[in-house]
């Protein structure tokens, strides 16, 4: 290889028609927030995930989680259960609301929230007169969590579920799209996600009223009056019409992106799964993962670091799996219910480059670097 370019973990991948929608926004001067692309993008997402839900396009996935908690009435002094094995953005909005996170560890089949631990956590909190106000479960790396079991526990105790589907657009669970499996769902269109608007997100809700409330809150909560009248506190969280144009173009290629990411996974699995000590997370039955990021687990922390550093040497980005929230300095005093699963994954796991625009040369370069690592 003559020149070696840097290989990223997950980089944006435009399809081609994004520019057309953005140009439309420019030529019609729909540069301000709101406009036809926002409605079009919302409708594209709505149809994609089955047509039954209502979708509000927002400025980020984090904003979507924040508004979900707001709509569910989470406030000062409330407790919210959150999957510990996740990105901090799943949990931060709990703090924005003045509430307290209670973290729950993962199970080994999907690496997501353990339904058993969830129930233990709920019973403990109820016993202490702190019944959780909501549950935030995450489809990490695009792998659907055990929604039937989680929903059953949530229903038993009558607690709403917010589905953090930031990484799972295009994944399905028993035939239903992730994002449409709970009381409320969210997507992210950040630059590293399976499709991107450069920055953006969406909230998925069950009723038109909830959507209208979300849009109202996301546009500074202006009451209906000729002057600026406010009877509640709002946010500036709406997606802009320019960025929604990128999203409309991206929706046209979403299924291709899922296919490409799944092919990355198959490539890595084919060539690495025969190495003792390296394993992959298989799809449980009736589950289809978008394989946003291909993750491996290694024999030990040392083996993981050897691979990571060898890749770094070759200008190839890789990263340890998410550091669980209950281990984060910022949440060190939080209540948590753990079983060692996420801590172990954090120690031994590695995210491999997984962009839908990786070339065969890129993949070969990554593979040969890993295979050259001594003491795998
Ligand atoms: C990316 C991500 C978010 C936040 O989305 P943004 O659009 O970046 O705000 C939330 N949860 C998870 C699991 C994510 O990966």
From TrEMBL:
Keywords: Aminotransferase, Pyridoxal phosphate, Transferase. Pfam families: DegT_DnrJ_EryC1. One of its GO terms (molecular function) is transaminase activity. The keyword Hydrolase does not apply. It comes from the Bacteria. Transmembrane segments: none annotated. SUPFAM superfamilies: PLP-dependent transferases. Belongs to the DegT/DnrJ/EryC1 family. PANTHER family: DTDP-4-AMINO-4,6-DIDEOXYGALACTOSE TRANSAMINASE, TRANSAMINASE. This is Aminotransferase class I/II-fold pyridoxal phosphate-dependent enzyme. It comes from Tamlana crocina.
């Amino acid at each position: 290889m003559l020149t070696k370019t840097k290989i990223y973990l997950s980089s944006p991948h435009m399809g081609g028609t994004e520019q057309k929608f953005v140009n439309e926004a420019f030529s019609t001067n729909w540069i301000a927030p709101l406009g036809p692309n926002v409605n079009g993008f919302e409708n594209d997402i709505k149809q994609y995930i089955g047509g039954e839900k209502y979708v509000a396009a927002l400025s980020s996935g984090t904003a979507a989680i924040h508004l979900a908690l707001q709509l569910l009435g989470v406030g000062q002094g409330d407790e919210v259960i959150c999957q510990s094995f996740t990105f901090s953005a799943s949990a931060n909005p709990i703090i924005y609301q003045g509430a307290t996170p209670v973290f729950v560890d993962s199970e080994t089949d999907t690496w997501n929230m353990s339904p058993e631990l969830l129930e233990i956590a709920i019973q403990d909190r109820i016993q202490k007169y702190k019944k959780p106000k909501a549950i935030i479960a995450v489809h990490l790396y695009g792998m659907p969590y055990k929604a039937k079991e989680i929903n059953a526990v949530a229903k038993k105790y009558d607690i709403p579920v917010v589905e953090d589907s930031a990484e799972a657009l295009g994944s399905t669970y028993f035939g239903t799209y992730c994002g449409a499996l709970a009381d409320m769902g969210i997507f992210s269109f950040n630059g590293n996600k399976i499709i991107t608007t450069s920055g953006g997100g969406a909230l998925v809700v069950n009723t038109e009223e909830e959507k209208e409330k979300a849009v109202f809150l996301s546009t500074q909560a202006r009451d209906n009056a000729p002057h600026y009248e406010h009877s509640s506190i709002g946010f500036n969280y709406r997606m802009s019409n320019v960025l929604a144009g990128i999203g409309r173009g991206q929706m046209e290629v979403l299924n291709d992106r899922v296919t490409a990411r799944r092919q990355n996974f198959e490539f890595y699995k084919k060539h690495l799964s025969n190495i003792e000590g390296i394993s992959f997370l298989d799809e449980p039955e009736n589950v289809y993962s978008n394989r946003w990021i291909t993750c491996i687990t290694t024999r030990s922390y040392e083996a993981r670091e050897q691979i990571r550093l060898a890749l770094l040497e070759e200008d190839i980005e890789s990263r340890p799996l998410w550091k669980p929230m209950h281990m984060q300095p910022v949440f060190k005093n939080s209540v948590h219910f753990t079983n060692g699963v996420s801590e172990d994954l954090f120690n031994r796991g590695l995210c491999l480059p997984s962009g839908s625009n990786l070339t065969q040369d890129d993949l070969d370069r990554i593979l040969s670097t890993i295979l050259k690592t001594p003491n795998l």
